[in-house]
Amino acid sequence: MLLSKPKGRPLVSESARIELPQGTLDLLILKAIALEPQHGWAISERIHQISGDVLKVQQGSLYPALHRLERRGWIKASWDVSDNNRRAKYYELTRVGRTALGEQAAAWRSLTTAVGLLLDTP
Amino acid sequence: MLTDALFRMRALFRRSAVERELDDELQFHVEHAIDKQVAAGVPREEAVRRVRLEFGGVEQVKEDCRDARGISLLETILQDLRYGLRTMRRTPVFSVTAILTIALSTAGLATVFTLGDTLLFRSMPVEHPEQIVAVSSTRGGPTPEGLVSHLDYLAFRAGTRTLSELAAYYPTAPLFVTANGNAHELNGAVVSANFFPLLRVTPALGRFFRGDEDQVPDRDRVAILSEHLWRTWFAASPDAVGSPVKINGTPFIVIGVAPGTFVGVGDSPIELYIPTMTLRTGYRWCDDALSPTCTVLAMIGRLAPERTADEAAAELTTLMPPSWINAPKGENSGITVVHPRGVTSDPSQIQMIRVLSGVAIVLLLVCCANLAGLLTAQSAARRQEFAIRLALGAGRARVIRQFMTESLMLALAGGAVGLLVSRGFVAIITALFYAVDAAGRPRYFDFSLTFPVIVTALAASVLAGCLFSVFPAFRSVRGGNGQAASRSSTGRWSSGRWLLGAQTAIAVGLVAVAALLATSANLAVNGSSFESSHVALMRLRPRLMKYPPERAQLFQREVVRRLAAVPGVESVSMVGIGAVLGGGNTPVGLPNWTRDQRIRAGYNEISPRYFETLRMPMLSGREFDDRDGLQSPRVAIVNETLARRLWPNRSPMGATIVARNVVQQVVGVVADARIGSRTEAVEPFVYAPFWQNPQQVDARLAIRVAGDPAGKLPALISEVGRVDPDVPIAETITLPLQLAGWARPVRLTATFVVYAAGLAVLLTAIGLYGALAFAVSRRTQEIGIRMALGAARARVLALIIGDGMTVVVAGALAGVALAAAGSRLVAHLLYGSASADWLFYVAGTVSVLVVGFAASLMPARRAAAVEPLVALRHE
Fold it and tell me: How close A114 gets to chain B, by Cα (Å)?
């Protein structure tokens, strides 16, 4: 399963600057807000922290991705007051988005399993 | 998908709110990032710097978000429109000039389209026009000109299955009507009882004919008024229904009034309708109008559901009467079924529309060329703006698109204004040319703007907008890089020159042709071989009152005698056939010629003093006079052309000629009357004396008066009324007005081409002025240097004027060739001899040269007034 060629600045991992396809960012965003609605900063921090500081999302790609996902109808946005009493835009999964998350995650796992098998065989 | 659409809608219409939200969102993120850095111990300013670096260009991120939102195209179009409006407001002079230019030329185009649509293409203004068909007989040729007799009509109606309804009508019945103290000849129609139901017309008052009222000849004398007649003669009173009217001497009863929206099926409004069973009253040229040999009716039908016109034609051909099968040429022999389109099939009208369309398109092209030149100059001034935009990262396509959006806005605005202006033009044209026909009868044309015309005119203006902007757009963006901008021009406006030269050529061509046409229009009305300005005309119609020939002729002699005695009248004359300057035709030949040798010549029966009344010079011999009566030898007068054809080597005086199977002796030769245009050969003509035909009943009179013929007409009419008040008088008009009616194509074309020529000259002058003014402003430094080095002001003046005039002279020379070609194209509209045409070419060239000079003078004077020191400092 091929993911499309990245347009704009890609998601990079800090230490080695590995380039990951853009679809990955969408998957990570969906997963990040799967439990509860988050705003953009929280999403970015969450991805950074839970990946063990390996993956760092560039702001230049995060927000366009969020807007794209919103347009597609997989996430929806609402304005709320954040922890420090500032207005922030919170994103949450829609029903369609939840289904898409499941599909994309399954696809990713089968891809990585296949690639791993190929790499392990001498 | 719905979310998508809603998302885009919101992004589009609540744009500022969405932008603000994006701002807030990104700002929120930035602040958190800064706080995180500060919490890690980084000083605040350093934290701010790092975050900003990391974040990258905020605008770029915003742009990416906007792209992700996916409403780019529509949003950018709106942005283009808004920017275009601002630019238009910034350069008001240019914008107004451009809009006016396009408006005036699309007005011309829309006017021609409206004329063409109404005259040639529009379907009938009734319900379901696609079902209506015109059924006509053919007579030995493909052109359907045939009319049928009443019995033929009944046979077709009884037998047809492809037509659900078939009605018959005679729409130009001359009805002399007396009612309520009014007496006048009106244009009436004789229609079958199902005529109005077929067209789905409902009466405004009373009712229409019932089926049983159209069964027995002459039994049911019922009439229907038009709404106009009801208002003018009956004061719109409900008592009109049931009141008596006299039609051609026969009493009728009014039973209803047609609605005001229905004026008939042709271009002459119908004032009165009578049923086909009263055809003997309405049509007097057959002894019995209802007999099988009297073909007078046209037919109109409604197709049965799912049937086509071709099927109807095939079926009706099988229903033709047996006498049609092998009929000789000139008699009914076939039948055609067509959908009626427009109101005329006159080839001269069709040709006129073609010529006018060509002129309108040429005018539009001149406008485009002009605007392209102006835009090129203007966009050169905006080159810096484009360069900056390109440097900031705008795509080339985007900038070009924005440029073209501006031009399209101008073009559309011009097109809309042009449509408004065209309504005024059409109103003027209707009043000047289409209000009455050549006999003074009112005509009815519905020259309204229809949807197809509006769409076509706007499409033409959009196309023009694309045309005039594409070239400057590409040029300005190509030269958008820095170095090209400074090297932009040395003041030579080379590419604009060709355009200007072309415009000048077209202007010269149009002016010359306009002058030719205007002169021709004048000649057509005022005549070159006869004198028309003091001649009044009238038509006497004793036939409508069924006068026998003897009684009619007594009446005519008395009328001529009495009219000649009216003060102010110089001479009175009559013709028996057709119009005063026309007539019929007949085969003529020498006595020993066979039938095949005879040639067709014009023929008319004229009373004494005919040539004197019209001031047509007699070359030899005499006019007819009282000597030439019924008991005298038969005589004839021929024109020059016929004399040359029949007797090439000798004088025709005293020779014998056979015309209409009557042997006549030639007693006079008259000069040719050139009433046709250059492409029409002069017709050979033979005249016989009016009084030597014992069957004369109707006549047309030509009366020469000392002063204004129109002012004299009422006195003449009342004098005829004193002789016999019952005889209908019709077609009371002056000869110049009648000729103007005939010459409508040339007069209308002349008016239009004069308008186009004026506009072309104005545009060329504006274009030339604009280009030169711009060149001068670019060359200010150069001029300053020249003057500082010692050039006199006059030298600078000559330099600039020379620049302008080179183009004008070159264009003018090409224009002469265009004028020659143009005059060939309109040769069918030109009257008079061609030997003086070169004068018009010269006049056209000279006038455009003068205008060009004036247009060059103003910038040249400005250039010469430049102060060298100021100029040298000018950047």
Answer: 32
What is the span of the domain harbouring residue A49? 13-120
Residue B688 bridge partners (DSSP): B605
A68/B68 CB distance under 8 A: yes
- ipTM of the complex model: 0.83
CB-neighbour burial class of residue B257 (10 A; exposed 0-12, middle 13-18, buried 19+) = buried
Same domain, B500 and B484: no
C-alpha–C-alpha distance, residues B129 and B507, integer Å: 43
Question: What is the per-residue pLDDT for B508?
Answer: 94
Per residue in B358-378, pLDDT (tens digit) is: 999 999 888 888 888 888 777
Query: Is residue A43 one of the residues assigned to a domain?
Result: yes
Containing B277, the helix (H) or strand (E) segment is: none
**Chain B residues close to A38, C-beta within 8 Å:** none
Neighbouring residues of A41: CB distance < 8 A, sequence distance ≥ 6: A88, B28, B29, B32, B33
Number of domains in chain B: 5
Q: Are residues B287 and B405 in the same domain?
A: no
Query: Does the beta carbon of B19 lie under 8 angstroms from any beta carbon of chain A?
Result: no
Is residue B749 within 8 Å of B517, Cβ to Cβ?
yes
Q: Give the span between the Cα atoms of B303 and B148, in whole angstroms.
A: 20
According to DSSP, residue A89 is labeled E
Chosen from B7, B19, B25 to mutate, greatest number of chain A CBs within 10 A:
B25
Q: How many domains does chain A have?
A: 1
Do B32 and A41 make contact, defined as CB atoms within 8 angstroms?
yes
Please name the residue of chain A whose CA is at the shortest distance from the CA of residue B5: A71
**Percentages of chain B per state (helix, strand, coil), in multiples of 5:** 55, 15, 30
Question: Do B371 and B325 share a structural domain?
Answer: no
Residue B534 in domain = no
Q: Are residues B562 and B659 in the same domain?
A: yes
A5-39: per-residue pLDDT in tens?
Answer: 344 445 554 445 566 666 888 899 999 999 899 98
B244-247 and B250-257 strand pairing = antiparallel
Contacts of B661 (CB under 8 A, 6+ apart): none
Q: Give pTM, 2 decimals.
A: 0.79
Asked if B171 contacts B264 with a C-beta cutoff of 8 angstroms, the reply is yes
Residue B392: burial class (beta carbons within 10 Å; 0-12, 13-18, 19+) = exposed
Q: Which two tokens stand for residue B410?
A: 């101008």
Least confident interval from A2-16, A38-52, B676-690: A2-16
**Are B68 and A64 within 8 A, CB to CB?**
yes
Q: How far apart are CA A45 and CA B678, in angstroms?
A: 93
CA distances from B315 to B143, B153, B689 (A): 19, 14, 49
Question: Average pLDDT in the B411-415 region?
Answer: 92
Indicate whether A105 belongs to any domain.
yes
Q: What is the 3-state secondary structure (H, E, C) of B283-301?
A: CCCCCCCCCCCCCCEEEEE
Mean pLDDT of chain B: 87
Residue among B4, B33, B68 whose CB faces A67 most closely: B68
Pair of tokens at residue B163: 């037509």
d(CA B361, CA B756): 10
CA distance B576 to B445: 31
Whole-angstrom Cα distance, residue B444 to residue B264?
9
Its domain, for residue B9, covers 2-70
A57: domain CATH number is 1.10.10.10
Residue pair B857/B808 in contact by the 8 Å Cβ criterion:
no
One-character DSSP codes across B39-69: HTT--HHHHHHHHHHHH--HHHHHHHHHHHH
Q: Is the pLDDT of residue B558 over 90?
A: yes
* A25 assigned to some structural domain: yes
C-alpha closest to that of B152 among B18, B331, B32, B309 = B331
